[in-house]
Design brief:
Length: 148
């Protein structure tokens, strides 16, 4: 895992975005907007598992740089939708799709069952990171209870 994380951190930020001092939290937010499409601050907060005020501050920061924009929701004029600003979309796509493509290439030769095992293992790892260090119980597969 340290090698994977280290390699991901070495993916260069596109030249046109370097002056904006983007942090990993911005990368996660932009990934959700790119792969899941435009959405509200509250929906982003849920996906990122942070407070809506935190996401609102990140969106405001990215908006000042013109990377994202808030638009009026056609279905409900009171709601604001966040999306990647078109001038920056190509650079962000190039930057972020390399990682997604690498995952697709790595998982493509696997059977559906093997892919599920990889995903379940990564989710179990994420869950284990949230536990206290002295809790050595095995992590159950994602979505399953440890008791029978």
């Amino acid at each position: 895992m340290p090698r994977l994380v280290g390699r991901a951190k070495r993916i260069p930020v596109p030249a046109e975005l370097r002056s904006m001092a983007l942090a990993p939290r911005h990368l996660s937010l932009l990934s959700h907007l790119l792969f899941d499409g435009p959405t509200t601050v509250n929906e982003l907060a849920g996906r990122l598992e942070v407070a809506a005020t935190t996401v609102s501050l990140m969106v405001a920061d990215l908006s000042r740089h013109g990377v994202v924009e808030r638009i009026e929701d056609d279905a409900d004029r009171r709601r604001r939708i966040v999306r990647i600003a078109e001038p920056h979309r190509p650079a962000i796509e190039t930057w972020l799709t390399g990682s997604a493509s690498a995952w697709r290439r790595a998982l493509a030769p696997l059977t559906p069952r093997e892919r599920s095992l990889v995903v379940d293992t990564l989710r179990a790892f994420e869950t284990a990171l949230e536990r206290p260090v002295d809790d050595d119980r095995p992590t159950p597969p994602h979505g399953r209870s440890a008791t029978r």
